[in-house]
């Protein structure tokens, strides 16, 4: 079980690079409504002290992720000028999703 959890990878999702450590990926993105994600664009992977580096992607490899939890962080921006009695409050939300690795699939090479 230690071997499965000791996986490090760099993946490409929505044209952004994310780091996967201990089977978890922290995706900072807009709203994602999917409960399951399949990623085939892997840039680097380290399993059991073996490192595979891509040119540009690792072929014949798929990652299957499922949704674990999300965090919605609301940021408030306050502008205040004391003598003019001016106050402006704006806010926006950051979406932070955590996905857990379900399966690693090595596909067979076509001959």
**What structural class do you assign from the helix and strand content?**
mainly beta
* Shape designation: elongated
Count of DSSP helices?
1
End-to-end Cα distance, whole Å, is: 34 Å
Q: For the largest beta sheet, what order do the strands appear in spatially?
A: 4-7-8-3-2-1-5-6
Description of the structure:
The protein is mainly beta. The protein has one domain (about 1-105). It is built from one helix and eight strands. An eight-stranded antiparallel beta sheet has the order 4-7-8-3-2-1-5-6. The longest helix is centred in the N-terminal third of the chain and has 4 residues, at about 1-5.
What labels describe this entry?
single chain; 111 residues; eight-stranded antiparallel beta sheet
List the helices and strands and how they pair.
Elements: H1 2-5, E1 7-13, E2 16-21, E3 24-28, E4 36-39, E5 42-47, E6 50-53, E7 61-81, E8 86-106
What does this entry show, briefly?
This protein is mainly beta and 111 residues long. Helices cover 4% and strands 67% of the residues. It has one domain (2-106).
């Amino acid at each position: 079980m230690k071997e499965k959890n000791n996986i490090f990878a760099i993946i490409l999702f929505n044209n952004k690079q994310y780091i996967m450590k201990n089977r978890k990926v922290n995706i900072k993105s807009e709203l994602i409504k999917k409960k399951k994600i399949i990623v085939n664009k892997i840039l680097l992977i380290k399993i059991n002290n073996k490192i595979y580096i891509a040119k540009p992607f690792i072929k014949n490899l798929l990652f299957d992720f499922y949704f674990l939890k999300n965090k919605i962080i609301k940021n408030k921006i306050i502008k205040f000028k004391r003598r003019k009695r001016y106050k402006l409050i704006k806010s926006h939300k950051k979406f932070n999703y955590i996905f857990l690795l379900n399966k690693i699939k090595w596909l067979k090479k076509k001959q």
